[in-house]
Design a protein that fits this description.
elongated; 3 strands; three-stranded antiparallel β-sheet; alpha+beta
Length: 124
């Protein structure tokens, strides 16, 4: 049996295959991978020196070192971070739901207008 890390979310994050081939946009897989990595931030270990940028958890809160440190969170050497802080706005959960309400509404209006136009025999 091979060693490894059990998935915190219990889902397959990526699969091997040709680039650009698949049914889901890449951003959905990227979001899931980032969430999985965030959930697997290790627990802080006292006495260890962490490099700047290292992420740990302590008492259910995630922290990122803002300098090389051996201090324990929530010392000033650590910033509390949420998944939104780590993931940022560059990669939303779904290209189909993020900010597309207006697009869906516009599409519905356009389709309704086209149906009415066809019903009266004119084209828009």
């Amino acid at each position: 049996m091979e060693g490894g890390i059990d998935a915190a979310t219990g889902t397959l994050i990526k699969a091997w295959g040709a680039a650009g081939v698949g049914t889901l946009p890449q951003s959905v897989q990227d979001f899931n991978g980032q969430l999985e990595a965030f959930l697997l931030d290790p627990q802080h270990i006292s006495g260890v020196t962490y490099p700047s940028g290292a992420r740990v958890q302590k008492a259910g809160v995630h922290y990122q070192a803002n300098t090389e440190t051996s201090e324990t969170p929530a010392h000033a050497d650590w910033d509390a971070v949420t998944f939104d802080d780590v993931q940022g706005a560059s990669n939303g959960y779904s290209e189909w739901t993020g900010g597309l309400a207006a697009v869906f509404k516009t599409t519905e209006v356009t389709q309704t207008q086209e149906k009415k136009a066809w019903a009266v025999g004119t084209l828009i």
